[in-house]
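Researcher: Please translate sequence to structure tokens.
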Amino acid sequence: MAQNPPDIRPDRAQARLERDLSTVRPGAQPTIGMVSLGCPKALVDSERILTRLRAEGYGISGDYTGADAVIVNTCGFLDSAKAESLEAIGEALAANGRVIVTGCLGAEPEYITGAHPKVLAVTGPHQYEQVLDAVHAAVPPDPDPFVDLLPASGVKLTPRHYSYLKISEGCNHKCKFCVIPDMRGRLASRPHKAVMREAEKLVENGVRELLVISQDTSAYGTDWRDREAKFPILDLARDLGQLGAWVRMHYVYPYPHVRDLVPLMAEGGVLPYLDIPFQHAHPDTLRRMARPAAAERTLDEIAAWRAACPDIVLRSTFIVGYPGETEAEFQTLLDWLDEAQLDRVGCFQYENVEGARSNALPNHVADEVKAERWARFMEKAQAISERKLAAKVGTRIDVLVDSVDEEGAICRTKADAPEIDGNLFIDRNLGGISAGDILTVDVEEASEYDLWGVPAGSESSHAT
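Model: Translation complete:
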């Protein structure tokens, strides 16, 4: 079985869309296709748009040619993502001709129409009503109460057994390399009861894992003026942990109160997994980023988290080649990584983004230097991952089964988020295993990013 590639894109939903969606309306009923690019937060937006359209009587097409119009949900975070979005718009225009654009890049309509003047409409991120209006104008709905059936959980672009749960929009940070606050606005948290209602409905309909996402998860609720709790994320995590599903926290900014989340992980209500975007370790680099610049204190926090929950898994992302980054600053990052021993690590080479304040910083790093530093960083991160996974051989752990075919089962441990971390593969003793099952597995082998094992109690790898 193939290993999970270390450079897999975590944010590309289109392959799942084409695989999982087929035309669900018969005859001449209008159908809409969807191209969903960008992060899981954009994927949730796509699900909400399709759910609304499905409730209005539209069918959902998994290909361009079977659709009366196509919605392209774009990403505009990096220039490379913008180029990918423009390419996807062009492909949809060539194959279908009737294209509506939404998402983060939609905040720059002239940029889109300058490249593709034939698009029918352009709307910005999470502008659901405007997207629906554009669809109505292009393809009027034709509701049929005898045909229109909407799943209780809505239209989902993820497998049935896990789902992203978006708890807020926007961000109040002013990181110089990021334009997300300009695109999606300031922090706007969903009401606690609304989040819980959605989570309860998802679990009732078979979801075994809730992936909590936002731009700044640990800031959830701090935008409420009359809140009772100082940090509402703690109450939300506690309540989600009582639903009986795996609860995984993503995009947790390293505020001091994150330390209060960790006991919930030790108790088992929330998965012992923190996705925290540290971005760098040298204080001067962090200051140029407009990020918290206390790297030593961060190491102290990591030690405290591990003391409170020894099984905690830490994932983070970093930027190398940020403007002004010296060799000494980069070496500080490598040394910090040696001390932090993070379990899951992603790394990006800095690139300018139109509108970002970092573009104006002096001393931009040459592309070849950025590439060389990225390779050195990933080599160290891979070695750490390899050692940590090797230590799991011979242990017994729980896994969630993502898919099963004749070759085997692809699973994830509590340490693995879907599509961005590793997998655990089972290639024998598959009797009775189905997607969505939670199994106990004996780990037999490890590589740099993945594990192999067999269901607990079955024959070992050394049996004849």
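Researcher: Any highlights?
Model: Confidence is low (pLDDT under 50) at residues 1-27, 145-152.
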